[in-house]
Design goal:
mainly beta, 6-stranded mixed β-sheet, 4-stranded antiparallel β-sheet, 10 strands, about 0% helix, globular
């Protein structure tokens, strides 16, 4: 069974930074690309950034040049470095796989809340 444990969220001021971590248990970490997703209040969950097992990355336009996804394969951990935070980044952030054709797995962690407010 796969488990995702996200951490690192909190309150940041506009222009500030946070670093999220996600520890992944189970056998998927070195099989599928991993990704960060976020869900704003009242909205559907959306894909934010993806990283393959070889380190190739992809971002949605809203976070390009501000967010950096990375992974430590020895620790089964995915990171999301978030800089120049904006109020629109306020959301619950989740990690999961991003499988070609199928997207995330059905299992989700508890997520970590990021709030950007002055």
């Amino acid at each position: 069974q796969v488990q995702f444990v996200e951490s690192g969220g909190g309150l940041a001021q506009p222009g500030g930074s946070l670093r999220l971590s996600c520890v992944v248990s189970g056998s998927i970490f070195n099989i599928y690309p991993m990704a960060w997703y976020r869900q704003r209040l009242g909205d559907q969950r959306e894909l934010v950034a993806t990283i393959t097992d070889s380190g190739r990355t992809k971002y949605v336009d809203a976070v390009k040049a501000r967010f950096t996804i990375s992974r430590d394969n020895s620790k089964n951990t995915v990171y999301l470095e978030m800089n120049d935070l904006r109020p629109g980044d306020t959301a619950v952030y989740y990690c999961n796989a991003n499988r070609p054709q199928w997207g995330p797995l059905d299992d989700w962690g508890q997520g970590t809340q990021v709030t950007v407010d002055s």
